[in-house]
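Recall the central idea of this unit: under ordinary conditions, the amino acid sequence of a chain determines the structure it adopts. In this exercise we apply that idea directly, starting from the sequence alone.
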Amino acid sequence: MTQPPSKSKLGVNLLRLLALIVVVAISVYIFSIRDQAEQLAKYGYPGIFLLSFLAYATVLLPAPGVAVVFSMGSVFNPLGVALAAGAGAALGEISGYLAGFSGQAVIERADMYQRLSGWMQKNGPLTVLLLSAIPNPFFDLAGAVAGALKMPIYKFLFWAWIGETIKMLLFAYAGYASIGWFLQK
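Accordingly, the structure predicted from this sequence is:
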């Protein structure tokens, strides 16, 4: 027997709130260890790549990928952080693509799926680029749509990499600028 819609929506909203709390907690933790963050230099950009890959490989719950990029932008070269994180994020997005490609994607709202499907059919690369370049909860669904429509994976990865790198560049430079500003206060 299925739950009434109101309980189901409440559960989803609680999961989203929990995810937000986890992201904020991790962000605060990373900020609190900023002085020790230079010890992460032994992992450097490959470590940032791996963290970003793992953060973006999640489909159901968002992981704090941009929070790590924001923090690491204040420790490492922001351009290097963006390139490493963008590549890791794009490869991590394969999980959503494969969910759609295999036909096993769970789609909450059919209307959003139909809208994204229409956009993807008209201009798939631009849709992937724009949705990956801005922080939004729909990119996993866009990846699933791209997979379901059988967009070539190299095309999906290329445009996702460009979009993710743009987004990561903005967060890395924001971290670079704002953490220095915050410490001066």
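The chain has one domain: 5-184.
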